[in-house]
Amino acid sequence: MTGQEMRVHVKRNSKKKSGYEVEKREDGFFYVTSVPSKKSSIQPGDRLLEINGIKYTEFKTVKRANDLFDTMVLDVEPNDDETDSDEEGSDSESKGESESESQNDE
């Protein structure tokens, strides 16, 4: 990441699951077993390569893979139109939202 990019972790409310689920098969790959909508471009049976930039070889367990759907990892570059003071406030706001969402899960 460059100096202006930031990484934000957004935790989903545990009451609202993503709708995606995976399983590990004998071939060692993880496959999608459930999707939130039939209109989704991802369908049951699709082989999963990454979740949030984490490769399938690093999932280790089905639980770990499914837990990755509960948090979105976003690498973002702030809008150039913002002033330095706005960017600082925006960064704090993003972190605050992430922390408050995480607290709602407990």
From TrEMBL:
Domain (PDZ): residue spans on this chain = 7-80
Question: Which residue stretches belong to region Disordered?
Answer: 73-106
User: Where on the tree of life does the source sit, at the highest rank?
Assistant: Eukaryota
Bias (Acidic residues) ranges: 77-91
What's this protein's name? PDZ domain-containing protein
Write down the species. Answer: Fragilariopsis cylindrus CCMP1102
Q: Lineage of the source organism?
A: Eukaryota, Sar, Stramenopiles, Ochrophyta, Bacillariophyta
